[in-house]
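re: ur question from earlier - yeah i can do the single chain one, its not a big deal. heres the input i used so u can compare w yours
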Amino acid sequence: MTVIESATVVNKPIEQVYTYLADLNNHQQLMPDNIYNWTSTADEATFTIQNMAKLSIKVASRIENKEVTAVPSEEAPFDIEMKWTVEDNGDGTTTARHILLADLNMMMKMLASGPLQKLVDHQTARLTEILK
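and the output i got, formated as tokens:
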């Protein structure tokens, strides 16, 4: 399993960060420009990645003020799990960590690792910008 992750410190209390991440409607704001045809509810999202594929994800689990995990709701090119964890830093800030677990063969790992890392880095940076 390939693990790709990125973390950021958000200047908001853990409850605010968790509430934002727990609703998939908010995740459109975290996506880069090559994501389009976005439709979502609080629990599911469908979108297209330019020049790649259409994906549908759903929330598999929520642990209040700890983590939100999403998985594909339809067949995906490879098994993937997208997880956000939040941790209270004790000073009114929250560490948010975005973790992608992907079952990639060697060829897919060479092709997809870079773009997936850019995606999680972009999403954590956008989270920090949005929740200033």
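The chain has one domain: 2-130. not sure if urs matches, ping me
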